């Protein structure tokens, strides 16, 4: 899409050699399970320290917003922590909030002049967002952002942990010629 390649892979986001990985965090920014736990475990204590400093400044991170820390021991230079919505049936603004997660993460990535970024399937674990709906929102939000911004991003990678998400994303993103 333009100069930016959209990719889908199955795997562990903590292993990726990209400039920034996105974390599906919670508003406390103090860590948790799922991909959040994996990123803090693999990235080491520096990430939590920076999250605590951000908390001290702004009191956590509201749903749909994003904050950035360094990547600690991860191959990635930055972690962009965003807070996905909890699924309450779809009438509580979940779609707009999930769109904001992708949009605000990309905005921060551009501010940091990131060339490659990897997203997990935000909100589709503990937060219960239906995977098919979340995949649609994710792909649409990223495509819209890329259409509307003069971005330096060369690669956006959707990292799927489970086979169901992989299949959903592969259906939405036909393989691009390289
Ligand atoms: N790499 C890539 N994806 C992963 C990994 C990994 N290492 N581990 C899990 N996933 P979740 P949420 C996938 O629950 O629904 C945390 O406790 C997972 O299969 O991590 O946004 C936070 O602190 C799923 O598809 O995040 C919050 O409290 C996706 O990542 C809460 O969970 C998201 O699942 C956020 O819930």
UniProtKB/TrEMBL annotation:
Residues 1-177 form the Macro domain. This is O-acetyl-ADP-ribose deacetylase (Regulator of RNase III), contains Macro domain. InterPro entries: Macro_dom, Macro_dom-like. It comes from Pontibacter ummariensis. Pfam families: Macro (PF01661). SMART domains: A1pp (SM00506). PANTHER family: GANGLIOSIDE INDUCED DIFFERENTIATION ASSOCIATED PROTEIN 2-RELATED, MACRO DOMAIN-CONTAINING PROTEIN.
């Amino acid at each position: 899409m333009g100069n930016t390649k959209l990719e889908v892979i199955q795997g562990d986001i903590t292993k990726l050699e990209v400039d920034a990985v996105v974390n599906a965090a919670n508003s406390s920014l103090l860590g948790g399970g799922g991909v959040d736990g994996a990123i803090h475990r693999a990235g080491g204590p520096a990430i939590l320290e920076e999250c605590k400093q951000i908390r001290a400044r702004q009191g956590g991170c509201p749903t749909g917003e994003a904050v950035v820390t360094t990547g600690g021991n991860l191959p990635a230079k930055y972690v962009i922590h965003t807070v996905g919505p909890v699924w309450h049936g779809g009438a509580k603004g979940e779609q707009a909030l999930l769109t904001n997660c992708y949009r605000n993460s990309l905005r921060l990535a551009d501010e940091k002049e990131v060339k490659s970024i990897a997203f997990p399937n935000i909100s589709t674990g503990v937060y219960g967002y239906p995977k098919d709906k979340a995949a649609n929102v994710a792909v649409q939000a990223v495509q819209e952002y890329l259409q509307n911004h003069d971005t330096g991003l060369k690669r956006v990678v959707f990292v799927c942990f489970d086979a169901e998400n992989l299949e959903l994303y592969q259906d939405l993103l036909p393989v691009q010629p390289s």
